[in-house]
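Fig. S4 source data, part A: sequence.
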Amino acid sequence: MNDHDRIELILPDWIDRDIDFARRYHDDESRMGLAIGLARRNVELGSGGPFGAAIFRSDGELVAAGVNRVVPQQCSVAHAEMMAFMSAQKRLGRYRVNDDGEKYILATSAQPCAMCYGASFWAGIDALVIGARAEDVMELSAFDEGPLPADWIGELGKRGIEVRRDVLRDQARGVFELYRSSAGASY
């Protein structure tokens, strides 16, 4: 196999070191607090962009965490949500995380872009918890989140995915303000 035939995306090593995977996250605020903390740490350590995401079972178990790794990995799909999906899928051994009949929640520090929105229903989540809105991201950074259907929340609802927005929104916006003010904001 040639090196260019291998595709490998790697999360920063600080995730396993800094995140307590034994802790339970029983409400939207604690789940969002983790997602925002991931995003903030990613900016502070210069290991990627200002986005964090985590997948939880409905009982509060943390299944997977992800951060934006687009620039360090030179891969446009290495968004925080995508990294969390891939990590959960690998850990659980299936491409639809909820194929075991359990309910899974994706907490993301910012509203998913067009790509991550589509991946949300293919990956098998049951609830989407969002911090910052797309307009916050575009106001505070140069990121273009791409087009979503006019009734994107309704479209997710049709697929059985409940959406809860603006959870710790000001804290999530704060990560983008930190990112904007940091000298190394090149991710």
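Fig. S4 source data, part B ends here. The helical segments are 14-18, 28-44, 70-73, 80-92, 114-123, 134-140, 152-158, 169-181.
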